[in-house]
Amino acid sequence: MSDTHALTVTFVRDTMLPPAPPPVGERGAVKWMRENLFSTPLNIALTVVGLLAVYALVTAALPWWLNSVWNAGSLSECRQIVAASAGEGATGACWAMIRERWHQFLFGFYPPSQYWRPVLALGLLAAALAPVLFAGQKRNLTIVLGSVAVYLLVTLYLAATPAGAFALSIAVILGMIGLAQVQPGRLLWFTLLYPALCFWLLWGGSIWSPVVVMAGFALLYGVFRLASPVIGLAPGAAAGILVAVLWWLYLDIPTARALQQALPFGLQSVNSDQFGGFLLAIVIGVTGITFSLPIGILLALGRQSDMLIVKTLSVGFIEFIRGVPLITLLFTASLLLQYFLPPGTTFDIILRVIILVTFFAAAYLAEVIRGGLAALPRGQYEAADALGLDYWRAQRLIILPQALKVSIPAIVSTFIGLFKDTTLVAFVGLMDPLKGVTQIVRADINWKGIYWEPYIFVGAIFFIICFGMSRYSMYLEQKLKTDHR
Amino acid sequence: MADAAKMQITDEVAIQITGMNKWYGQFHVLRDINMTVNRGERIVICGPSGSGKSTLIRCINRLEEHQQGQIIVDGTELTNDLKNIDKVRSEVGMVFQHFNLFPHLTILENCTLAPIWVRKVPKKEAEETAMHFLRKVKIPEQAHKYPGQLSGGQQQRVAIARSLCMKPRIMLFDEPTSALDPEMIKEVLDTMIQLAEEGMTMLCVTHEMGFAQAVANRVIFMDQGQIVEQNEPREFFNNPQSDRTKLFLSQILGH
Known about the structure:
By secondary structure, chain A is mainly α. Helices cover 73% and strands 1% of the residues of chain A.
């Protein structure tokens, strides 16, 4: 009875109580454990079972990890080393296999003297993606491009790159870092040129073939710009496409050949069947991701279109592709497509696989994006219409930015799925990292019987890449969040 | 009270609707609508819900299609010709019940988007115009916020500014205050009154009878898809002719 009087009814507080810390059971780790681990008898039982399970797993797996062997020439040598160091009957991982064969996991049968080419292509891929992924953010752009520069310096040196190529690559990336400080928007030109550059770096051959193919696009754009003011947008685009297709069909190869004779310059050619491992997975995955998004958007818009033919074609395409397993499509790519093409045409197997993987992902994306479109209130369409925006502008400026934002998690899921599905190309004889390369390694008499290690190694790399995509999508969602709910 | 002297009504016809009919499937929403709006007129359209008043003004910028009759806006007839539709839409501003601001763009970007892409105004000039109108609706300080950070009344004023940035010759208001709290209604109505005083041709679907009495030069009462009665506001409120109007007015003014 300090400040109240027992017998009076009226009460006035004259001293304020200072805040006191909560009792021990209500704070910190104790509280957390009480609430989360031991709140009910069932919870206590589950906690105990869980701890036992963790204990069992750790005791089973830990020695295997701890006894890892990195230096050995074969699996039996690995086992001898483990037995010698940890006693008879002990288990141990044999990472020596990875040490000896890592290049096959990364490059397949790509000629070792040319490893600098995929290595350079990967670095430049990051440089080409950066302006898209971090549009207008000077700081992030500089960080990414700077990391690419460091990566290229190290890896190109390790891969024994010819001096000219080394110097040129470093000069390009330093130039991009400089440009990022002044006009980051201009970096997108590099992104546009990158596909041709990458193709040439990876497959080699004359430099003129990709240049001449890109000239077709330049021609398309030129005709469109010249013709559209005279004959209108759609006919202008049609004329541009027509001219470009004629160029590719009839003039492309002769022009490239003539240029190559006049100014021979090129890299050693590498055949598609020499591609393998993560080189193959990334080539298929990145190309598929890049092209499936625009195709998916067009299909989603097509499905919502008022035009009967466009709508029917979109629905038919989406439903057919989604209704068929990817492996069926891959078999189609590897076997059936040859029957439909004129005899004698060689249509690269990787290219065929890329096309079908892209279609497959595009069909899924179309449905994902349709969900995003459906989530938009009708008022957004009406407001865009009421301001006099035409269909394409309304889609590009109002509808798609919002619909795509809503669909980011699902879009990235589809991308991750696509990337992991690239391992299915093993079924059409391509050397994917998971089955293709592992099978080759395990067929070697030295490594026969090795089981966990290659899968863990490949799985870890897949995880790093997929986890990276997932984190980027979360960053993007956060960045685009404007609703302040 | 608005300054009547400033509110000049001219003889120039802004909107001409003749014999217009519209159906939703089997349902006959708009029946034989005939009306002429002169430049500078401020018309309030009222009526019970489902009477077709929103549909009527949405036909004027072709958010809804009519099946029969003729609508001529600023000398352009609304047909299926997309060019004509876009032309009319860029001349006719519209303000919606639920604001319909673009949530992924800032207030300023909301206001400059259409001038830049439809009118091809240079970005800098568009931003100056936008700031001018944002000052006019009294929220220039919010220009760099996103719509989600603004109150309903502020959002609706931005929506009005966004329409004004296209320098429209006619403004349509589709129940602009129905989704707002009472104290926010006033700030939006003040903006609309100010607009009326500057001589804007306005068609306004609203239940704000005070607003109708203050600025409208004509009130149109609709029921079951038809124009039941139209008159200048004083006569309309004090001396309604049809029984349907009397009933409506007694319900809406009764409390």
